[in-house]
Design brief:
Blueprint: E1 4-5, H1 15-19, E2 24-26, E3 33-35, H2 44-51, E4 57-58
Antiparallel strand pairs: 1-4, 2-3
Amino acid sequence: MAIVIDPDECIGCESCVEICPDVFEMDGDGEKAVVISADSDADCVDEAIETCPVEAISK
């Protein structure tokens, strides 16, 4: 199942990047998080989803 971030919902808090840097990074402008490994099954993905304050991450 692919991991997706809704760019309209993302507020750029960077919590997902801090929790799971192998899956998420900030975009070139540093304003929004983006997925760099959409098919990752890393354990930290679920924690990142739960931690997102605006629920912008899904899989």
